[in-house]
Amino acid sequence: MFTGIVEGVGRLAAVEDLGGDKRLTVAVGTLPFAGVRLGESIAVNGVCLTVVAFDAASFAADASNETLALTTLGGLAVGAPLNLERAMRPSDRLGGHLVSGHVDGVGRVAAIREDARAQRWRFEAPRALLRYVARKGSICVDGVSLTVNDVDDAGFEVALIPHTVTHTAFAQARVGDPVNLEIDLVARYVERLLADR
């Protein structure tokens, strides 16, 4: 589990084809990395990946064809900035919301506009996911826990404070860029419970 509070921004250092899927090497950049262990989960742009090798400045993780097809990871170029978060511990503060790292779909940055010192970002999203997005609810975009300001049939809008922009890969994002989306866990379970009634 993760919180959607990005701990550091790294870069995609290498992509290696291995037996039909890929091994990604991630340069950890500003991610606090002391005490990392094999088998640990790290969210990479909101995708939960398992550390299969590491050194002092990077880690490698295998990405299955399912992960590559359903997230933005398969289309990233070497050098792309990455939002990184290590898995939470039971004693951690939950500064964002509960995030599993299981991406529900891919959206796109539709618009960015200035709003005083903040920025308003609009994201297009698959219609099938928008039914789970609620005004003032939470959504995870590229691993960042955000509050939804508005939602309609084509997408949703959030406000990003200067800290969020400068301390995440959003600092380098542009209109048209694809993003990983994870809906709030609670919405999934509520739907499942109601379906069984």
Summarize the structure.
Its EC number is 2.5.1.9. By secondary structure, the chain is mainly beta. The protein has helices at 65-70, 127-130, 162-166, 185-195; strands spanning 8-18, 21-27, 41-44, 47-54, 58-63, 81-86, 105-115, 118-124, 138-141, 144-151, 155-160, 178-183.
Furnish the topology, listing elements before pairings.
Elements: E1 8-18, E2 21-27, E3 41-44, E4 47-54, E5 58-63, H1 65-70, E6 81-86, E7 105-115, E8 118-124, H2 127-130, E9 138-141, E10 144-151, E11 155-160, H3 162-166, E12 178-183, H4 185-195
Antiparallel strand pairs: 1-2, 1-6, 2-5, 3-4, 3-6, 4-5, 7-8, 7-12, 8-11, 9-10, 9-12, 10-11
- For the record, the CATH architecture of the largest domain stands as Beta Barrel
Shape: globular
Task: Sketch the topology as an H/E string, one letter per element.
Answer: EEEEEHEEEHEEEHEH
Radius of gyration (CA) equals 16 Å
Domains (count):
2
Q: Which CATH C-level class of the largest domain is it?
A: Mainly Beta
Count, helices: 4
Largest sheet: 6 strands, antiparallel, barrel
Distance between the termini: 28 Å
Mean pLDDT: 94
Helix/sheet category: mainly beta
Beta-strand share of residues: 35-45%
Low-confidence stretches: none
Helix content: 10-25%
Oligomer: single chain
Number of distinct beta strands: 12
As laid out across the biggest beta sheet, the strand order is 1-2-5-4-3-6
